[in-house]
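Hello,

Our lab assistant flagged a job as stuck in the queue for most of the afternoon. It eventually completed. Since we weren't sure the result was trustworthy after the delay, we are filing this so someone can double-check. Below is the sequence as submitted and the structure that was eventually returned. Let us know if re-running is recommended.
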Amino acid sequence: MSASSKSSTSEKRPQDAEKQEVDSQFEKRTIRLVDVRLLPLLGLLYAVALVDRTNLGVARIAGMGADLGLDLGQRYSIASFIYFIPYILLQLPGNVILKILGARTWLTICVVGWGATQLGMGWVRTWEHLVATRVFLGAFEAGFFPALVFIITTWYKRHEVQKRLAIFYIVSIVIGGFSAIFAYGLTFLGGKAGLAGWRWIFIIEGLLTMVLGALFYLFVADFPDRNRFLTEEQTQLVLARVEADRGDSIPDPLTLSKILEHLRDWTIWAYALMFMCATMPAYAIGFFVTIILAGMGWGIRDSLLLSAPPYVFAAISAFGFAYISDKTKKRGIFIIIQTLISIIGLLITGYVKNNGARYFGLFLVNAGASGCIPAILAYNANNVTTHSKRAVSTAIIVGFGGVGGIFATTVYREEDFPRYLNGIWATLGCQFLMIVLVAALEFTYHRRNAAAAQDGVVLEGQPGFTYTL
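-- returned structure --
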């Protein structure tokens, strides 16, 4: 190489390094801006959704059970599970409407709608009226969670997504964990305007939800190609990152033929069953934790206060596993580990006689289940391409989360109070099924990746794509 060539090369290298550093900083600032705009607001709204669907347990022990006769027969279980019927049936239609109306309009309709329904629950006079309002609550919330997951997964590269889903979910479970304490505080409004304390839980929380719905309309981030808060250069960076990672930065049309094609993929149904297995213990904790604690001998106040710490522990555990999972680019093994944590917790809560140990068991159950929920969503998101398949798979998976809710509210029966052993064994069965399903997916993806490497098989219609194990 001539002296002039060496000189030319040496002159370019510092400039190239400087440009790469500038590009790297620009990318970090852009993704940080996306994080700040996307995750806290969506996490807050999903927390409100969780609070509004699970505050029956608090309202029940605060007087609603006696006023509406929910202790008779299976009335409480019916009022709990009826919510999930429209919630399950309207998941996929909700994602179709999302693609038509856009995130801001559709999600605002959902939030304001369920807030108004929650408000109306403060004036129900019979348990039948309560059941009717729960149906409307399920209908409005049906389009919300799958839309949130769908939106989040379109903004990030595959191995960045679980931390984001975990942050989003952590915000919701921490706020949701303290919701029982907040609801307990609202019961002290009992007597105001001639209304019982439990009615104020629904009235205040319903009003807050409607206000948040209005704020949501003003600040929500849409899909990357529709966003209004990034510059054109930043938007192109986000789209380029996604395109390089999995080749689906530009949305494809969601048609009936594509929906039917995607529904024939058995892995979507495997993820859906896994999500059901994870949400079952999560819903059981949400609906019954205060009742289980009351059965251990604690009073109403202490039962409500003690319901919060398991959620804080779950948040820490979920983020820790999400961080490690994204760092190692592994999904299945960490789902299995967290499932084993849930199994240990269920056995402790069900069979150890010491109440302190049983309470510790609730920490483990909640940590394992709460960590598996974003992990399963990330596992699926990492292994599909195209917006249409992402929309279909997300809707089906989250819909089966509703099946887990029905399962939880029916197997934890009144006659099994206070230990709920039948419910615990049903939940254990779901955890063992989870492990089997993860093993089946890992085996299948390993074989497909090997075929792609050895024989040049194209996976998910994207040359160079490989499945995340």
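-- support follow-up --
The delay was a queue issue, not a problem with the job. The result is valid. The first helix runs from residue 3 to 54. The CA atoms of residues 23 and 448 lie 35 Å apart.
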